[in-house]
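Tokens as discussed.
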């Protein structure tokens, strides 16, 4: 394998990361708009992309290892070192640009995914609060953390009025 093959694998990985970012942003829009019904579909689509990304990452690693050996570098050379150890010419810049794009996409994915996790936790908390408010078993915590006072029940409507 050569530098062209590795570059092609890196392009493929970048495209999959962009697609994954898109899927997570769709998931975020669904969560933010309250369309929770479609979130499982968006999550499944993201999982498909993640599986494809695993395969692409393996292919990229094989191509990088082969190129490293071709360039007289250790087989386990990372992309950063591969770019730095590239022969004089365009490959240093090409691989450095790939690396920068991959790092940027990964950072964006982490940020969106963290936002999605927050939205999911908030939705779960809101659903639990709603359930607690309308069920008879909803209790209010006392200052010592107990809920065993029968008169300290949370109520949606005060029935004593």
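Sequence:
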């Amino acid at each position: 394998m050569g530098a062209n093959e590795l570059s092609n694998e890196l392009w493929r990985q970048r495209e999959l990361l962009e697609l994954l970012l898109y899927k997570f942003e769709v998931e975020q829009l669904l969560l933010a708009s309250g369309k929770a019904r479609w979130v499982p579909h968006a999550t499944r689509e993201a999982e498909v992309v993640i599986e494809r990304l695993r395969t692409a990452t393996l292919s990229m690693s094989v191509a990088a290892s082969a190129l490293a050996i071709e360039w007289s570098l250790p087989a386990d050379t990372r992309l950063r070192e591969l770019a730095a150890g590239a022969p004089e010419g365009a490959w240093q810049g090409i691989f450095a640009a790939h690396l920068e794009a991959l790092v940027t996409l990964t950072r964006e994915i982490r940020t969106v995914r963290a936002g999605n996790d927050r939205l999911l936790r908030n939705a779960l908390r809101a659903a639990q609060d709603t359930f607690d408010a309308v069920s008879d078993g909803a209790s209010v915590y006392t200052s010592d953390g107990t809920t065993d006072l029968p008169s300290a029940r949370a109520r949606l409507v005060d029935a004593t009025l």
